[in-house]
User: Fold this.
Amino acid sequence: MGFWKSIFSTPSTTSASGTLPFEEYAVIGVDTRTGTEAKIYFSTDRNIDLYELEELCDAVGWSRRPLRKVKKAIEHSFIVASMWEVRGARRRLVGFSRATSDHAFNATVWDVVVHPEFQGKGLGKGLMKYLIDKLRRQDISNITLFADPQVVEFYQGLGFMSDPEGIKGMFWYPN
Ligand SMILES: CC(C)(COP(=O)(O)OP(=O)(O)OC[C@H]1O[C@@H](n2cnc3c(N)ncnc32)[C@H](O)[C@@H]1OP(=O)(O)O)[C@@H](O)C(=O)NCCC(=O)NCCS
Assistant:
């Protein structure tokens, strides 16, 4: 593919300069076709354009959800971690994830998504590591999630275990 010239440095705490509203970046890439530098920034700012998020979720084929409920879910999440491609003054939402929590012991990760154009470059892993780091800084020790069957290995690569010590996730759905 060769789009990203350089992939993954260790997550940095360097602040974005100028007017960029992002707090950290972890990856710098160069579009080898144009020579333009593009940076990937991570952010915990939950002020996300819901239509842009919907577009991202559409791109991976997720069913649409009512935006008022998505807004509420974001407002009530413990940590919202987003990932942005920044080129000059332009920014684009290319990844998203969030975690709910009891703010003491447990957190559960939801809605992990990376835009298809940006998949397979280590960015999903970077986004998850960023989110986990934020949770660990809040002294959360028990992080759980519900993995679609086709992404179990992705999460295993980050240290998540299926059914540890035989524990089973259980669900209740309305009839
Ligand atoms: C799952 C998803 C977030 C992964 O993001 P990504 O940026 O493509 O993943 P990365 O490039 O960071 O991959 C990290 C590692 O996981 C592996 N991996 C990624 N997706 C995988 C998959 N579906 N199955 C198995 N392994 C996978 C990669 O090979 C890589 O392995 P390595 O560290 O040994 O090289 C992304 O594919 C996506 O958004 N999918 C659609 C939405 C979705 O299914 N979300 C999860 C809902 S539970």
Notes: The two ends are 46 Å apart (CA to CA). The mean pLDDT is 86. Residues 54 and 64 are 7 Å apart (CA to CA). The beta strands are 24-30, 37-43, 79-87, 90-101, 106-114, 142-145.
